[in-house]
Amino acid sequence: MLIKSKSGSELTQADVTPKDLYLNRRRFLQGLGIAGAAAVAGERLYSAFAPEIVQAGTKLTTVKTAYTVDEKISSMNDVTHYNNFYEFGADKGDPAKNAQKFRTSPWTVSVEGEIKTPRKFSMDEIVKLAPLEERIYRHRCVERWSIVVPWIGYSLSTILKLVEPTPKAKYVAFQSFFDHNEMPDAKYTGLDYPYVEGLRLDEAMHPLTLLSVVAYAVTKTNQDGAPVRMVIPWKYGYKSIKSIVKIKLQGSEPPTTWNRQAPTEYGFYSNVNPNVDHPRWSQATERRLGDIFMRKTLMFNGYADQVASLYAGMDLKKFH
Amino acid sequence: MRKSLSSKWAKVVVFALSTWPLLFIIWRTVRGELTANPVEFYQHQTGDWTLRFLVFALCITPFRKILGLPELIRFRRMLGLFAFFYVCLHFLTYLGPDQSFSFSGMLQDVAKRPFITVGFAAFVLLIPLAITSTAGWIRRLGGKRWQMLHRAIYVAAVLGVVHYYWLVKSDIRKPAFYGVVVGILLAWRIWSWTAKKKEPATATVRQAHPARSA
User: Among A173, A128, A176, A175, which residue's Cα sits nearest to residue A154?
Assistant: First the structure.
């Protein structure tokens, strides 16, 4: 029940969803045993049980943008059943099982710190703030697997410009939702919670830096960081923080969860870089989910043309 | 209990049970239930079962002594060879999908990554143990030397646990579990050796069956 259409428009999923995704979602639902009930009771009941689709009010129409790659999109079943979302357990299959009851509504994101107009945004406000774009991004995990995901959202800079950073703002700190009762498996995972991440302000203002509300046009994929998450495609996956409740602009470099856990292994920047290895394994290659053999990892995950200038003159090994 | 352990069928049963992980992996493959990352699924399954069979093999001697069931020795070679079988599969999932069957690439990786180095070392250590597991080799080497050689399994087991520990990012529960189990099994041996040094009578019994008491 994340994104409700307040208009009375009765658009069906098929009207707003590319057919292949729609069919893919159907198979996904059949896997959950939901579609059986839907078949009996018809589309209306189906909608009530199914993961909600972004309704196509004019402001929710997704548009393809320049910020998209022409690569084969990973299967939705893979992307929703192979997750690192440690709050719900450290095994890749845990989040798909344990995040189903996670309540993502109501939800507010507090934007605060060195800005002129601190304020809280409801999810309804967030999805209506700017036209939603569908961006197909490469996503590279530090563990050497990668996927290609159609995210829906808009540049984080849209929100940051709205709240007007003060001259003191140099960094953006993000914080995930955390609750012991809703996330009982988190205590075994060896990380400190709530999960925190951060970006330099210029990184955060970069148009590729995406605030995403949906993947695969399906809103109820809790395990992928619903209802709102970051996607920073040229950095290792753990920088793309999930289920955000707080965004704070500040003057100092914020702590980040994996860096605190193992400072030599996970730096603040965490840019995808085939030339700088993880201390325990090479980062020169990766396995795209669905492939058997490894492929070469690209500098900045293939986004070097857009983002390399952000790091001009920096020692990327030191600032890994 | 002792009678059934001595039965020829007991070995058949243990053999059948030991192939269960392989059948499970094949079953999942046939059904296409290999998770989003099939290579990782194969690597983790074969790695887990290697460690488990190493632990099973290391359990034989303490269980024989503690439970008073000397017949258990009949299964030790088989369990050790199954550990070797699963480590071979484990190695192939690394050499193939990860290294594209490039031996030079593999050797570079082995030299550079401690996590790979220890895993590879454990694998290499198990090769002579598998080769010399036959009765003929026990005769050729002599019981005492054979036993010395086969103590390499202690090192292999420890390296295997370290390999697993260096693989995980932050949830160390599973490698820690194997570490504790292997630690207990090795500590029991140290304890029993020191106890035996104080009791020369038992030492004589040991020497009478050198190949049967590592």
Answer: A128
Q: How far is CA B181 from the centre of its chain?
A: 13
Residue A276 to residue A264: CA distance in whole angstroms: 12
Residue predicted with more confidence, B36 or A1: B36
Question: In this complex, do B170 and A82 lie within 8 Å of one another by their Cβ atoms?
Answer: no
Domains along the sequence of chain A with CATH: 55-311 (3.90.420.10)
Give the Cα-Cα-Cα angle B176, B92, B178 (nearest 5 degrees): 10
The confidence score (pLDDT) of residue A217 equals 85
For the residues of B4-25, what is the DSSP string, one character each?
HHHSHHHHHHHHHHHTHHHHHH
Angle at A138 between CA A133 and CA A143, to 5 degrees: 140
- The one-letter code for the residue type at B74 is R
**Chain B residues inside the 8 Å CB shell of A221:** none
- Burial code (b: 16+ CB inside 10 Å, e: under 16) for A6-33 equals eeeeeeebeebbeeebbebbbebbeeee
Rounded mean pLDDT of A55-59? 36
Is the pLDDT score of A56 beyond 50? no
**How do residues B158-183 score in pLDDT, each as one tens digit?**
999 999 999 998 899 999 999 999 99
Position A61 scores a pLDDT of 67
CB-facing half-sphere around the CA of B79: CA atoms within 13 A:
18
**Total number of domains in chain B:** 1
Question: Domain span at residue B75?
Answer: 2-212
Pair of tokens at residue A103: 């309540």
| DSSP code at position A52 | P
pLDDT at A45 over 50: no
pLDDT at A90 over 80: yes
Residue B37: which of A191, A280, A289 has the nearest Cβ? A289
The ipTM is 0.83
pTM above 0.90? no
CB < 8 Å from B in window 177-216 of A: 188-191
Q: Do B113 and A293 touch (CB under 8 A)?
A: no
Q: What is the DSSP string of B126-150?
A: HHHHHHTTSHHHHHHH-HHHHHHHH
Q: In degrees rounded to 5, what are phi and psi of residue B116?
A: -75, -40
Distance between CA B12 and CA B14 in Å, rounded?
Answer: 6
